[in-house]
Records
---
Amino acid sequence: MTERNPDIAATSGWTPRDIRALVDVKTGTLDPRIYCDEELYRIELEQIFARSWLFLAHRSQIPKAGDFFTTYMGEDPVIVSRQKDGSVAAFLNQCRHRGMRLSRLDHGNAKYFTCSYHGWSYDSAGKLVNVPMEKNGYCSKLNKAEWGAVRVPRIAEYKGLIFGCWDAEAPELDAYLGDAKFYIDVMFDRSDAGTEVWGGVHKWVIPCNWKFAAEQFCSDMYHAPLSHMSAILAVLPDGVPPEAAQWPTEGLQWRSPNAGHGTGFHTPDDQGQLLAAIVGSSVAQYLMESRPRVAERLGNARTTAVNGAHMTIFPTCSFLPGINTLRVWHPRGPNEIEVWALAIVDADAPQDVKDTWGQGITRSFSPAGLFEQDDGENWIEVQRVLRGARARRQPFNMQMGLGNEKSDDRFPGPLSYVFSEAAARGLYTRWARMMAGESHAELARPHEGVS
Ligand code: FES
Ligand SMILES: [Fe+2]
């Protein structure tokens, strides 16, 4: 076994063997210290966030040369910037002189980024181009070529989603996503025009570990009928009986064989009323009317048998096809996340549909979103409970659907019943394998024992 970062074992009490023991997929148990241990968090920043493909921005956020968007890769601030040749560059949002944040804007258009501390200037690709007092102060001896902002070496895009990765050994994004692409397309490949971001980015901080959020969007349809019941009843139009809020029971869950991605959805086509209540009836009608042309592109199964879906691309990019919220769970220590939520709409939808959609997404999934609050409340309370010395020693149960995977000709597998924790077992196995230091060549092998 290659130890990718041997100093982790040397500088923390956690050995790769200890870390692997935190996730036991054979018995379906999980050690809750993965959510609250400071040292594990420090290891995560190195082993997960510095080695995974991370969502940076949607293409529509930086359409023109010079457009930039500032975001994070784990806790590292980065600037994502559209270049003159149409390509995308990303680099650490950190001046090489004394480390000041180069840009404190959320987004904008700039030829240069000038540090507000002493004035070093970088171009839109991060190259250092101007240094005050270069001649007198540095005696013209400063080699500016060596002091550019640190570039993110790997940038790739899939259907408008721009990802970055620090690790030269990571597989290509396309291979990393694998069959996840089949499911991503449900939301992001409905037409040649693709999608765009509606409005800005909602950002808020909640005191919980990032894995609660990532896991829920990956694998947890189970919470929806109960946790969201009051929200569902609240959004049902007058005159619709409460029985209409009955949660469907049929559906499928998919987990990535080795990469930690996952999705779940209902196969019966009976969520129109609920979708109309959440995002607006004109949006539901638009989605219904666009079905024939979408079916030509994606086929019938993905047009009619993927309903009410949730999805996570490991580690922290999650979305809900149909409702169309997209979010990143930026980690901020073991006990806190910064949620960044974007509303995604079809780029070629009529403007009034886009606006209704964006407002519907905001009403349901945003800092004040009716459904969002249900989720955040659960994650925050679990995190609070884990402050207890005894509480953090009790293993969690993730046995739902253990050993019950199945196949369906319409969808790539491995598949299980929609109410299952197979994708969670996949996500935590990926987490444990990366945390234990497996190389990307090793990580390319399917998870053993996960079902
Ligand atoms: S820290 Fe940026 S110029 Fe000094
Ligand atoms: Fe939820």
---
Amino acid sequence: MRLQTSAVATLTLFLGFACAAEHESASAATQASSAPFQLDFQPVDAETAQELEPVLREAVRTVETWFGAPFPVPFTITLQPDRAAFDASFPPEWGVAHTECWMVASGVATGVQLLSPRVWKAQACEHDPADARHVAQLLTHELVHVYHGQHNPSPDFVDTNGIDWFAEGLATLASGQLASEHAGHAREALASGLGPTSLATAWTGRYRYGVSGSLVAFVEHERGRAVVIQMLGASSGEELLELAGMSEAELLERWRAAVRTE
Ligand SMILES: [Zn+2]
């Protein structure tokens, strides 16, 4: 999730400073070109960071393979030791005072804020830290947001409008979540009358990941991955549709027909 909406920008630096004032913060810079990130964490998360590092490297490989090109800019992944620190990692202008229990990460061009999986059992819901595939795909999902931000005119997504279905759908598709934990959800949504009536509502409700992911998969099927990659640079829903070469009504209608015959 991009915190379900957006953005960190200079936040990583600010946080690093704030944490350093209170604790001695640790960091593990990765040297290999295949891992263009720095992992920041508090001493209490040293073990968790060690466990996550190879998973993150693999997630980077998955993203770069899907898009066919490396991350253009290095970024930081910050492990937040508890829910309060995670909440405090969002800049005041986002208006996010307290995150919901299911929110454990956000990703923008500069990097990822991640509530440490060490505390998910006590401080999160709907996320099992012992489920290796779930954790790997969740991290991959966030890295897709990072990659997206690094290719968008608005690196923190603040100056975008109507691209939620694409941003979340792309992350759900490219991370493998659409084929695993959200498989069949678009079909279920349509069958139960909970399908989207507009792209603006695709990223709402209990089926939002499956529906948005399926929409992007449909665009890829119809237009090819190269077009989906071009869509990374779009700032608005209109721009996305123009690149996809379909009107909103046409996209939704053809998508519904395709999902029903899957
Ligand atoms: Zn997301």
